[in-house]
């Protein structure tokens, strides 16, 4: 993925992250715990969560060394370095312990879910019993329509350049079934298309 396109997309979505963070926390229903945000679209939601929920310990992980360095700099500028960790990890085999995280976030998941058959299983593995993973994509429920209209065109263009794949609810159901996590997953179409995984 082109790092310049990723960073441009991140800047574009700054107004959106608070609404995504709010939707996630509404589902999570706690204000504490160990949190992992994964992938090249990570960072923005985690920074919002760190500002609003001081009892969350947050880790951000991605495969790209360049992106990991960028996120480290963003966190340093934010003044939240003491509560946030950034780690390079393979998305097929996460470099984390079993049952390590209470909350896992993977936004932009549809870039990966079809081509990485082990990803949902890996999220489940590193999720603590009683924990939740929030996986998918969209603008988030409650996001003002004018914010979406302001960035929709440019966002589509950048996502297309980055290789976004569109996934239907039916295709997502097949991915979940193949992962053997059907009993743990709930597919929702609020503010986008999301899977919540509970352990």
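Q: What amino acid sequence fits the structure above?
A:
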């Amino acid at each position: 993925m082109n790092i310049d396109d990723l960073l441009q997309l991140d800047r574009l979505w700054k107004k959106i992250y608070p609404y995504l963070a709010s939707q996630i926390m509404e589902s999570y229903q706690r204000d504490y715990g160990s949190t992992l945000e994964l992938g090249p679209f990570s960072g923005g939601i985690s920074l919002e969560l760190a500002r609003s929920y001081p009892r969350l310990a947050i880790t951000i992980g991605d495969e790209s060394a360049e992106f990991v360095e960028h996120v480290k700099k963003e966190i340093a500028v934010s003044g939240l370095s003491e509560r946030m960790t950034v780690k390079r990890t393979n998305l097929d085999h996460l470099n984390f312990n079993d049952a390590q995280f209470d909350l896992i976030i993977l936004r932009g998941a549809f870039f990966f879910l079809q081509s990485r058959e082990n990803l949902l299983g890996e999220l489940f593995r590193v999720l603590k019993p009683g924990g939740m993973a929030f996986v998918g994509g969209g603008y988030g429920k409650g996001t003002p329509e004018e914010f979406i209209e302001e960035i929709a065109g440019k966002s589509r263009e950048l996502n297309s350049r980055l290789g976004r794949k569109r996934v239907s609810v039916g295709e997502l159901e097949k991915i979940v079934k193949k992962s053997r996590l059907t009993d743990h997953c709930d597919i929702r179409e609020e503010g986008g298309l999301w899977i919540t995984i509970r352990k």
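Q: And what stands out in the fold?
A: The first strand starts at residue 32 and ends at 38.
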